[in-house]
Design a protein that fits this description.
Layout lengths: L8 H12 L5 E7 L9 H9 L4 E6 L6 H12 L4 E6 L10 H8 L11 E6 L5 H9 L17 E4 L5 E4 L11 H9 L10 H15 L1 H8 L8 H12 L10 H13 L11 H40 L1
Parallel strand pairs: 1-2, 1-4, 2-3, 4-6
Antiparallel strand pairs: 5-6
Length: 316
């Protein structure tokens, strides 16, 4: 099942953000370090590139991510034109102090009280933007919650150093092109819970863990992942935890939720669910799929044209 989540308020929020970018020096885009590419909003990239604004991409929650793969992602983003990337955990004291100096480097001409640095905080919902805003403001200003789409309006804050910080609502995009991106966003609790099925997302997560972090499953649940697939993992968790439904069958839903929560809160260890390499494979597959779809559409158009021509000839 393809996962898409685009609440109505995001349409107006996206339009206002695009307009506000005219007066912004640097876009600070917050990503989830466990799924950095999946949590990049292509609409944000398009908006800032249209205004020729540099981006400071923050890989947040690095304390939950695989440190070796985080380094790969930082190199990946830092190789992009107009982009600088850093990793941090905005919940840790002092980590937010890295942000403004790095943003300043991207706009060296904005360096005084008459030329205040103006940054816009952007990102998909629930990546930690509001927590970072509160840390930068040195007080609780933005609402924080463990649910996507808490912030609804663009707000401006005057930071202690004179920087103007514009906080935007979490923004999704109308259609998620890669089905795997939807699954990764759901696994990391970055889309609304009504947009996906826990068992489907947990099964996909389990398959990633089997391929790259099988030891985490053994350590957490005491299972032997040898020769298992995703559904086997969910069933094993249900059996090990005693999750049963009426009649004695394994409670797959409860086991799926358990796996998702354990992953999200770090109980499975430091895990990153995508790498630059897997991203490249997925994008290549998408390109082939789109090319094949276009070829089919072109063949259909040609057939319709031929049918129309034959019909007209027969009528003469």
């Amino acid at each position: 099942m393809a996962i898409n989540w685009f609440p109505g308020h995001m349409v107006a929020a996206q339009k206002k953000a695009a307009e506000a970018l005219a007066d912004i020096d640097v876009v600070v885009e917050v990503l989830d370090a466990r799924c950095p590419a999946a949590s990049v909003n292509p609409k944000i990239n398009a908006m800032r590139e249209a205004r020729q604004r540099p981006a400071l991409k923050i890989l947040n929650k690095v304390d939950l991510a695989d440190p070796k793969i985080t380094e790969q992602w930082l190199a990946y983003f830092n190789a992009q034109e107009g982009v600088h990337a850093i990793g941090l955990s905005c919940k840790k004291a002092g980590e937010s102090n890295k942000v403004l100096p790095e943003a300043q480097k991207l706009a060296p001409h904005r360096d005084g009280p008459l030329k205040r640095l103006r940054v816009m905080m952007m990102g998909v919902p629930n990546v930690g933007k509001s927590t970072l805003v509160n840390a930068l403001c040195q007080k609780r200003i933005a609402n924080v919650g463990d649910e996507p789409a808490i912030t609804k309006l663009i707000k401006r804050y005057d930071l202690p150093d004179g920087t103007w910080l514009f906080d935007t609502p979490g923004l999704m995009w109308p259609k998620i092109a890669l089905e795997t991106d939807g699954l990764l966003l759901a696994a990391n609790h970055l889309v609304g819970v009504k947009s996906y099925i826990d068992e489907e997302v947990a099964t996909y997560l389990a398959e990633i863990l089997l391929a790259r972090y099988p030891e985490s499953l053994t350590a957490r649940y005491g299972v032997d992942p040898t020769d298992m697939d995703g559904p086997d993992v969910i069933e094993a968790i249900a059996k090990r935890r005693g999750f049963r439904i009426k009649g004695g069958s394994a409670d797959f839903e409860k086991a799926a939720v358990t796996l998702l929560l354990d992953y999200r809160n770090g109980a499975l260890g430091r895990i990153t669910v995508e790498t630059p390499e897997t991203r490249g494979v997925q994008l290549a597959a998408l390109a082939v799929e789109l090319a094949e779809a276009e070829a089919r559409a072109e063949a259909l158009r040609a057939a319709e044209t031929e049918k129309s021509s034959t019909s007209k000839a027969a009528m003469r």
